[in-house]
Amino acid sequence: MSDIENGNDQNGNEALWQFPCQFLFKAMAQAKEGIEDEIVAIIQKHVPGDYVPKLKPSGKGNYVSVSVSFTATSKAQLDQIYLEVNELEAVKFCL
C-alpha cells in the first residue's frame, strides 16, 4: 500500500505531526461583517471551546486575516476544518 493510500503523502506526512498539538489556523477573507463568527462556528463544530479570533485588516480594508488558535487532535480533524472553511464564499484561502 502506498503512502498516499495510507493517508501519508509527501506534503502532509502524518508522521511529522504529533497530536494533540496547539494549532494556529489562519484564513484570508473578504472583509464582511461576521466572517470571523462563521469561521469560529466551523472550528467550534470540530473543536468545542470559546475562541477569540485575531483580526488583521488589509491595507485598503477589503480583506481581513482571521487567526484562531486551538488544540488539534488529528490530521483528519484539521482537514475537515480546512475543507469547510474554504467552502465559505468570502474566504479566499487558508493557511
Q: What would you say this structure looks like, in words?
A:
- This protein has 95 residues and is of the alpha+beta class.
- The chain has a domain of 61 residues: ACT domain (Alpha-Beta Plaits), CATH 3.30.70.
- The protein has 2 helices and 4 strands.
- It has a 4-stranded antiparallel sheet, covered by helices on one side.
- Helix 1 runs antiparallel to helix 2.
- The longest helix has 12 residues.
- The N terminus is likely disordered.
- This is UPF0250 protein FLL46_19950.
- Belongs to the UPF0250 family.
- InterPro entries: UPF0250_YbeD-like, YbeD-like_sf.
Intertermini distance = 30 Å
State the strand order across the main sheet. 2-3-1-4
Largest sheet: 4 strands, antiparallel
Shape: elongated
Strand content: 25-35%
Mean pLDDT: 89
The fold-level CATH name of the domain at 34-94 is Alpha-Beta Plaits
Level-2 CATH architecture of the domain at 34-94: 2-Layer Sandwich
How many extended strands?
A: 4
Number of helices: 2
Helix and strand succession? Answer: EHEEHE
Compute the gyration radius: what is it?
Answer: 15 Å
CATH-assigned homologous superfamily of the domain at 34-94? ACT domain
Structural class: alpha+beta
Ranges with pLDDT <50 over ≥5 residues?
1-10
